[in-house]
Amino acid sequence: MRKYGLTLALAALLFSSCGRVSVSFDDPSLKVDAFKKSSLEISQQRIDVSTAKVEGGFSLKGKWDLRPFSKIRFTVRNDNTEDYLSLYFFLENEGKDSRSRPSQGILEDRFKVAPGEHTTLEVLLPCDMPHPEVNRLLTLMRDTPYGEFRHIQYGVDLSDVREIRFISKKQYPVSHWSIENLTLVPGERPVPGYMQLDSAAFFPMIDRYGQFKHKEWPGKTHSDEDLLRARSEEEKDLAAHPGPEGWNKYGGWADGPRYEATGHFRVQKIDGKWWMIDPEGCLYWSHGIIRVNASSSVTPLHGAKLASRDYMFEYLPSPDDSLWRFRFTNDELLIPYYERWQEDSTFDFSSANIYRKYGPDYKSIWSDLAHRRLRSWGLNTIANSSDIDICREDRTPFIDRFDIRSVPIEGADGPWFPIMDPFDPSFRAAVEDQLKAHKRDVEDPYLLGYFVDNEIKWGNETHAAKCVVNAPESQAAKKAMRSFLKQRYGWPVEPSEASESDLLDFNRLLIEEYYKVIRESFDRYAPGVLYMGCRFASFVCSNPDVVTIGARYCDVISHNQYRYTIDSYKLPEELDKPVMIGEWHLGALDRGLFHPSLQICDNQQERAYFYKEYALSALRHPQIIGIHWHQYMDQATTGRFDGENFQVGFLDCCDTPYPETIEACRSVGYTLYQSRYNE
Predict the structure, then answer these.
(1) What are phi and psi for residue 504, nearest 5 degrees?
(2) Is the same domain home to 414 and 556?
(3) What is the C-alpha end-to-end distance of the chain, expressed in Å?
(4) Residues 555 and 501 reside in one and the same domain
(5) pTM, rounded to two decimals
(6) What domain range includes position 324?
(7) Is residue 422 part of a domain?
(8) What are phi and psi of 24, to 5 degrees?
(9) DSSP string of 469-491?
(10) How many structural domains is the chain composed of?
(11) Residues 343-359: pLDDT tens digits?
(12) Residue 289 is part of a domain; what is its CATH number?
């Protein structure tokens, strides 16, 4: 077996007697590129991938006409014995556009491979679209109705494929895996189901309840009577499952050992495991859910950058309709995002359905129901981005989040908002203003604490410093860099002349200033309230300095962790700090939505299975003090402000629970403390 670097020539296509086409990896006519410095070992029929940075893979570059074939078959081996391999497969045309919604010129499929598994997988190639005009009208959504026939399929032209890629994502710690026996299988690609419909028959495709019209599934709502029937059936279920025994009013372990009670939630390490301690001194492990909010299924209709999508919907209320009130985004969390995306017309299907189901007094009824649901399901935390009025009823502990809006560092953009300049006076003022505005909640014993900011793009060890170098002279961080360089060298040094070590050290100084200002503000305006960190987005933050420096100032490190299990989670440099999993979820395509979420499952039964697997692995982990599912209700079938339309709810957009997920959640929640304490 030979070892190669980043690129090498690859692969002749050899036809077998049965018409299949196999890829041989010893012909220099085509090229392979390793992804992110992966190390590749290539033999005739196999490519082994090794990567020190966890994310890795390779691409095959050439020119293929795949129209005679129905599928691509290959064998995968996951050499890791602890974690699932999350494998992404791509077919791509030249000049693809991955930024559009939906993307064009790309076929994407995803697979999960169990620890130690050696299995054969297939990618079904999409049929020719008989009505491409329908696909062109399926705007904004992360995935479309056509995605059902391939997990994520974006109008790839099979006649001119230029690249095939296999990639494992970095949040999954699998550093050794292989692909072998890559084969093109001939066959027909029939046009399935509603893809045979032209635009006149296909649209409108969304019914009055926000559901896809052209498909049936268990639990689908067809009438207002169905909503009322579901309400009645759920009440019977809640009465039969009132909640775990042995919990106190906070959801802490009343039947367990007692520790110092401070009147607030706090953290403590006990017998080698981190715990939260509730205000009464009971052990507490946060089993929670994000966005307990009626406005989870808001979808844009049109805006400055979005042409009208009214044609998609069977029903939209007129001004004299009682549901007209839901034609606008009332959710305080979402308003800034819709404003940023310049989407000024929306419809809130979930709130409209809740109004239909519970009547004019829907807010108080649904609020009460939310608390009863969580306790019945074995959950004890209303996680961030939820309806603050529901949180303030003081029936279920809640955790909240605020984002710092001050002067940004020019060029330090991120997926949501840029890095704010911690040296600018507006930064401290913004943090203090937020804490002052939350004075009522800061004093509430039901408050677990605050996340500050969300999924900041910290970049590598010098990213923010390089942005400061290129920032205008008025940037406070640039003035701080000048002062830093002068102090280091004894004379003025231009930021553009800073060495790599200068950039590294100033980057650390900037990170420290960020955390220090927030910590000082908490100590002054929210003493005793837990500072829960800034919710890192990846498995390990791309810059470990952010984690290690943050650990000095934060009470808890928070990570958003979309995986199947979390046994192997580690903080850098063996930091001993409590960790809150700020987001995780799973989804499937068998209940009417078009995108299966960031963690795909085959169906609701498998989703329930992995709910238990993830939750139990977190309970086993000595540093993890809680997990928060994203989110309470499904996202809109036709997408939110950025197109996300994931099947991620405990409830669908009609407020109907997914029974499989509820059962799995109860199986974990009802024995939560016994599992954690006895492990």
Answers:
(1) -60, -45
(2) yes
(3) 44
(4) yes
(5) 0.93
(6) 224-377+582-678
(7) yes
(8) -105, 130
(9) HTS-TT-HHHHHHHHHHHHHHSS
(10) 3
(11) 889 999 999 999 999 99
(12) 3.20.20.80
